[in-house]
Write a structure and sequence with these properties.
Number of strands: 23
Structural class: mainly beta
Radius of gyration: 35 Å
Number of helices: 0
Strand order of the largest sheet: 4-11-10-6-8
Strand content: over 45%
């Protein structure tokens, strides 16, 4: 018989020669499934394999014979594509040569180790081959993906280490407030949005690097930070000592994985202004500031 599903039907009194009270029981059907004697497959875990950097986790694979006969099979592992420091090994006591009975799954356990310096956007794979011992030409393969567990975090703070910053500026000049943005995750992140609420002085604040380059988006590596300055023109009509506040919102990710942080930036009108508005430095360093203002006439 050919491989596959076959259906047989028996019908009684095809020509309706008999008088019967009911005819619905004159039909009977039966199915017959013809399969290869030796067929097997490798079933991966239902959930993606994601391992935190610097750790080892155990994953389980299921081997299932879907043929008609019990036979001896051997599972082969090709880990040549794994990056340096990664490993995929059978757990202690796991035997890669085993007897598989039809439709009786067998579970095998493996230890997956990821080095501590692996980044959250890294991934790789191992190739698995399940071969019939008596005929290696009969086999089943699976490419098993392995991923580093990605962590995400974002910090946006001012000089005090809190979500606030103060910028002081002279009338008809820019007030400048210092802030630092840090990627707390283990993979590179790019901002998906940088937004401001409207300040009472009008206009829209802008972000600049220390060398005066305006920033419209950020890309930060794992645990990388960058110092920025938020600026807003102080109008000539702003009374000395008055303030204008705007909320800065920086986001990374998209959809359900969107992560945002807010920073309240207050700009104050003053007769004097220091440049830079804040400096982050190490001990025993020489620092200098410029002080700008109008001398009394």
């Amino acid at each position: 018989a050919e491989l596959g599903e076959h259906e047989f039907e028996m019908v009684l009194d095809v020509n309706n020669n008999l008088t019967e009270a009911r005819k619905d029981n004159n039909n009977a059907t039966a199915s017959l499934s013809i399969v290869n004697p030796h067929v097997a497959r490798i079933d991966p875990p239902l959930d993606p394999i994601r391992i935190p950097p610097g750790s080892t986790e155990t994953v389980a694979l299921s081997l299932v014979a879907t043929g008609s006969r019990t036979a001896e099979w051997t599972l082969g592992i090709n880990d040549a594509s794994l990056p340096e420091g990664w490993s995929f090994t059978p757990t202690s006591g796991t035997n890669l040569g085993l007897s598989l009975e039809p439709n009786a799954p067998v579970s095998l356990s493996f230890d997956v180790a990821i080095p501590s310096n692996a980044l959250g956007d890294e991934n790789s794979y191992v190739d698995l081959t399940l071969s019939l011992d008596e005929d290696a030409e009969i086999s089943s393969t699976l490419r098993l993906p392995l991923e580093v567990l990605r962590t995400r975090g974002l910090s946006v703070v001012g000089p005090s280490g809190l979500s606030e910053s103060l910028g002081i500026g002279r009338q008809n000049h820019d007030a400048s407030a210092w802030l630092v943005v840090e990627n707390l995750g283990n993979a590179q992140e790019s901002t998906t949005s940088i937004d401001w609420t409207a300040p009472s002085w009008g206009g829209t604040p802008a972000l600049y690097t220390a060398d005066g380059t305006e920033v419209f988006s950020l890309t930060l590596g794992p645990n990388q930070d960058t110092e920025l300055f938020a600026t807003l023109p102080v109008p000539a009509s702003a009374a000395l000592g008055t303030t204008s506040t705007s909320m800065l919102t920086i986001c990374i990710g998209s959809g359900e994985e969107t992560l945002c942080q807010d920073l309240e930036v207050t700009f104050r009108a003053s007769e004097l202004q220091t440049t830079p508005s804040h400096t982050r430095t190490l001990p025993n360093s020489t620092l200098s500031w410029s002080l700008d203002g109008n001398l009394p006439s």
